[in-house]
Amino acid sequence: EKITLSVIKADVGGLCGHTSAPEELMDACEFVLEEALDELIIDYYVTKCGDDVDLIMTHQKGTDNKEIHGLAWSAFEEATEVAKELKLYGAGQDLLSEGFTGNVKGMGPGCAEMEFVERPSEPVIVFCSDKTDPAAFNLPFYRMFADPFNTPGLVYDKKMQTGFDFDVLDIYQNKKILLNTPKETYQLLALIGNLETYSVKSVYRARDGEIAATCSADKLSKVGGKYVGKDDPVAIVRPQSGMPSVGEILEAFAKPHMVPGWMRGCHWGPLMPVGEDDANPTRFDGPPRIFALGFQLSKGRLVGPNDFFADVGFDSARKKALEMADMIREMGPFQPHRLSESMMEYSSIKKVLADLEDRFVPNEKHEVVDKLTYDVEDQS
Ligand code: 13P
Ligand code: 13P
Ligand code: MG
Ligand code: MG
Ligand code: MG
């Protein structure tokens, strides 16, 4: 019998600014989910990372189910009512469509779901983040499932020796490609090292196609004049028994990496692993952060959670992330702290630049080179 684990998130308002979603919003969501318990869903856990509310739900309706997505949408609508009443910042920020149309994808909320037969013991890890985008998982997914220096189980466990298949999404063109590691490691890295265009959507165990990980990466949809389906992602990973172990999965966050997001969604910054209670991004609206909740599923019941990154074992990762934050903050509005224009999220820099367009004059003192071509082929 198959169980579906759905993690659906939305930013429906912050207290104060974009730093945190207050209890009241989670209470409003819990009220809606409680009503659906036993009827539609088996179990649920509501949490928040920064200003994003995360609904973790188990059920037997499969992925992309209209009733489940509708339930999440109503929970966020209820919470938005509360957010408006409290005049929270950006009330209803991620509910960009007027009415629910059957699937939350492309409507603002982010969604990671997987369906599987519960193993004799079914540990799962749910990741929630704020101030970053789904490509933040490219590097950690690679470390977990393809890097033996992170995951020695790839070397020691016969079940993993045929590797993992990475489902990579081109978010602009809405196309996807499946690549196997270790066979196509270099081709995979050629794509997913580019965080602007490519996002790892899911990872499958190559031996039997069993789903191992998935995140809320989605095509960029234009809703209400804004590109959505992008930021503050969630992910689900299944550890143990022929998958990387819990510790190998968490180890992928022990060496913080730079991700797009942070202030105004316009800056590169280190992804800092924190406990659930420390997910209140504050300094320069950050730094970007992530927490990891471990559950055991028991016939769909969510037993737990275990708040993994609250462990002292991640203290030095936090210290390192803060040092990286100090270092890159010194760049101010200069690249590489600042994102390229095409990646900037909450900014009207294009208008600022458009205003300057007329003031540009030809630089006549220098010889005008008609066509500048570099031979970039095979320079090695
Ligand atoms: P224990 O000996 O604590 O059960 O740990 C087993 C293990 O595989 C840890 O990675
Ligand atoms: P959120 O995407 O978390 O709402 O943050 C927006 C922002 O502008 C942070 O500075
Ligand atoms: Mg916000
Ligand atoms: Mg947010
Ligand atoms: Mg956001």
List the helices and strands and how they pair.
Elements: E1 2-10, H1 23-36, E2 43-49, E3 52-59, H2 66-85, E4 110-117, E5 122-130, H3 138-146, H4 153-156, E6 164-170, E7 175-181, H5 185-192, E8 198-205, E9 211-215, E10 221-223, E11 226-228, E12 234-237, H6 246-251, E13 258-261, E14 267-270, E15 272-273, E16 289-298, E17 301-307, H7 315-329, H8 349-356
Parallel strand pairs: 15-16
Antiparallel strand pairs: 1-3, 1-4, 2-3, 5-12, 5-16, 6-7, 6-8, 8-9, 9-12, 10-11, 13-14, 16-17
Bound molecules: 1,3-dihydroxyacetonephosphate (13P) (2 copies) and magnesium ion (MG) (3 copies).
The site of one 1,3-dihydroxyacetonephosphate has 2 residues, from loops.
The H/E string reads EHEEHEEHHEEHEEEEEHEEEEEHH
Principal-axes geometry comes out as globular
Q: What is the CA-CA span between the terminal residues?
A: 54 Å
Radius of gyration: 21 Å
Mean pLDDT: 95
Category from helices, strands and their pairing: alpha+beta
Oligomer: single chain
Cofactors, ions and other ligands in the entry = 1,3-dihydroxyacetonephosphate, magnesium ion
Beta-strand content bin: 25-35%
DSSP strand tally = 17
Instruction: Describe the largest sheet.
Output: 9 strands, mixed
Number of helices: 8
State the helical fraction: 10-25%
